[in-house]
Structure prediction request, 153 residues.
Amino acid sequence: MNYKLFEPVVLWAAIVGLSATASASNETRPPCLAGLRPVLVQGHFTGPIVCSEEASFILVGRTRSSGFYIYDYRYKFRPEHGNVTHGGQRLVVVHNGVYVGQYSLAPPPYATVTVSGPYVSLRRLGAAKVKLDFTREPPRQMLFDGEVELFSR
Prediction:
């Protein structure tokens, strides 16, 4: 059998396979804070802006009728010259492309956040489920896992 016929095909397949792998890995890395960093800075977001593999900023959903976008922001970082790692979870609320505010949740374990209709629900192992009504605006405070969490900028 003449193997010279197959050499260009094998070479082409190897090149295409490697380039597909490289481009796929680049495409799967999401932008910092889902591309909302300018929106958060302009809206005077109070909290750490962590753009590393130690942070996730995920769109949980959009509330029906009121149109609030709810993001689950989880992060860990060590300040420069610091000895202690900091971290937390925040629910970030955006409306019409404008940062509205956030709930800073108590330390881990992290809460599971879901959106259904106008409601945002939080659940944590060992804690009662909390259901927030976002029909008109985000509630100013909530009681979750024994902590009063305030809605703030």
User: Anything to note?
Assistant: The chain has one domain: 33-152. The chain has two helices and nine strands. Residues 63 and 118 are 5 Å apart (CA to CA).
